[in-house]
Specification:
One of its GO terms (molecular function) is cytoskeletal anchor activity. By secondary structure, the protein is mostly helical. Among the domains are: 122 residues, Four Helix Bundle (Hemerythrin (Met), subunit A) (Up-down Bundle); 130 residues, no CATH class. The two termini are 41 Å apart.
């Protein structure tokens, strides 16, 4: 997801819902502005503090803290924008508001944290003092209209703004690091099933806040602590939850380094191949494999140990696809397999030897198991990667695979959801790629021609809405059409041949992208 300060992850929600949630924080802030951030009573109201701190769990408190942090970071960005335009009145009122939010955030955190370090107290004091200085500066700017004085003060205000943002970022980083440390201590030393489960759950919620949080958890030893749980039989019932948290943390390089350090791939292999584990445990282990083998990752040091265990892992994943009791389990197992087939032809050969083509084609006919475009995307990715092998064609014909590819060329989003529409495009593109590659086999080409794949490919080339205006689908369809046209030139109208087959592919592509759709 798209940059806020690195320590804050923007929670993607409906804007009205966001406003409703933030309203309380905003009104608190306005009240604080009136009170000039002073407490109503000078006596410590311990009973009220107790109610506030016991009202929420650690997870809720962290969510509240992150929301408050998001508001502060947004306000600081807006102050910089107003400062640029010399809107001094707005700059001052927003500075007062930031001052109040920062004080509220520090107060809220102190009500639920068990212990604060000396470093934390020092940073809090630095930040509060700098915020007060910031407010005083902007107030002084309101009291003068001298352009020269304002110009010289503007650079001081800018410097103070940068310092406030810097202290604020450091404080948030320290708070989150401290919370991660607390949770990891509970996981490592509690020995209680309930406490460990609760800590893992909170750690998972923390990891959902984005890559920066995952880096903090990884640096504090999160991956090591979680794999330690996965190696203890007494915590078997926590394996699914622990593995799900691992999958989240291993999206960052620091998580990957730790996985390598503790021989995590061997542990995952043991879990996947141990038939005494539940399907949920196997599915979550497959999710970790899918995460660490993602083609989008730029760091691949861990793959050496992966290759050593690949055959066992692939065997277990194919079995999981075959025995999956739900669409979710199949999706996780097939996603891991799809990523593995990107490695090299050796991975594809192992998958082929395990009768995976037949298993995957059979699963696609079960709408209870392959129930979304996302699952079909994983299946067709595996098939496209395997189609480079010559022996794949006969398996395809036996399993009625050409019929499936033809169906996939009609993939369309029913919800209009952008993520689902993108998955449908990938299904169309990869099914055309698979068809183009396998059409070198006369048997596959013959089956495709009989199933009237050529008219469908022409339609996808000529009608932008059929392919959701996707250029990648267009290129794949042109390639598939040219492969089939070699064997069946009579299956095309002369205009289709002249425009879509005869020219260079790039010329046909440009022709189709500039084509006005005909509604006649």
């Amino acid at each position: 997801s798209p940059p806020l300060p690195s320590s804050v992850h923007l929670i993607q929600v409906d804007s009205v819902q966001r406003w409703m949630e933030d309203l309380k924080l905003m009104t608190d802030c306005e009240c604080m502005c009136i009170l000039q951030s002073k407490p109503i009573s000078i006596e410590k109201d311990e009973q009220n503090e107790l109610i506030l701190s016991s009202q929420y769990s650690t997870c809720d408190n962290l969510q509240l803290l992150l929301k408050r942090a998001w508001i502060v970071s947004t306000e600081l960005t807006r102050i910089a924008q107003k400062l640029e335009k010399n809107r001094w009145q707005r700059v001052h009122s927003m500075t007062v508001r930031v001052n109040c939010h920062v004080r509220s955030m520090i107060h809220e955190y102190s009500t639920f944290t068990r212990s604060s370090s000396e470093e934390m107290h020092q940073l809090e004091k630095l930040l509060v003092d700098k915020c007060s200085e910031f407010t005083a500066f902007t107030e002084r700017c309101l009291q003068t209209e001298d352009e020269e004085i304002l110009r010289s003060m503007k650079s001081c205000v800018n410097e103070t703004l940068v310092t406030v943002a810097q202290y604020f970022g450091q404080l948030i980083e320290l708070v989150l690091t401290q919370e991660a440390q607390n949770l990891l201590r509970q996981i490592e030393f509690s020995g209680s099933l309930y406490v460990t489960e609760s800590a893992i759950s909170s750690l998972f919620s923390l990891a959902q806040e984005g890559a920066h949080l995952c880096r903090i958890i990884a640096k504090e030893g999160g991956v090591i602590a979680l794999f330690k749980i996965c190696r203890q039989d007494c915590f078997r019932c926590l394996y699914p939850q622990t593995l799900r948290t691992l999958a989240s943390i291993c999206c960052v390089e620091e998580g990957m380094h730790q996985l390598e350090k503790v021989d995590g791939i061997l542990c995952l292999t043991d879990i996947l191949t141990d038939t005494s584990h539940s399907e949920a445990t196997h599915a979550e282990a497959a999710a970790v494999i899918a995460q660490i083998t993602s083609p989008h990752l730029t760091f691949t040091q861990h793959l050496t140990s992966f290759l050593e265990n690949m055959e066992e892992i692939v065997t277990a994943l194919v079995k999981l696809c075959q025995e999956a009791s739900s669409g979710e389990v199949f999706l996780l197992a097939s996603a891991a397999l799809a990523n593995i087939t990107f490695f090299d032809t050796m991975a594809c050969e192992i998958v082929l030897q395990l009768n995976a083509v037949k298993i995957l084609l059979a699963a696609c006919s079960d709408k209870r198991i392959v129930d979304t475009p996302y699952s079909r995307d994983q299946v067709v990715t595996i098939l496209a990667n395997m189609s480079v092998l010559d022996q794949c064609a006969s398996e395809f014909i036996q399993g009625n695979g050409v019929q499936l590819l033809m169906e996939m060329l009609f993939e369309k989003s029913s919800s209009g959801n952008p993520a689902e529409a993108a998955a449908c495009e990938r299904v169309q593109q990869k099914s055309a790629v698979t068809l183009a590659r396998l059409s070198r086999d006369p048997g596959v080409a013959d089956a495709a021609i009989k199933l009237r794949c050529i008219p469908r490919l022409i339609k996808l080339c000529r009608s932008p809405t059929e392919r959701n205006n996707s250029d990648s689908v267009l290129v794949a369809c042109l390639a598939a059409l040219r492969s089939l046209a070699v064997l069946s030139p009579d299956g095309l109208e002369d205009s289709d041949f002249q425009q879509l087959v005869k020219p260079r592919l790039v010329d046909s592509f440009l022709l189709c992208t500039n084509m006005e759709e005909s509604f006649v």
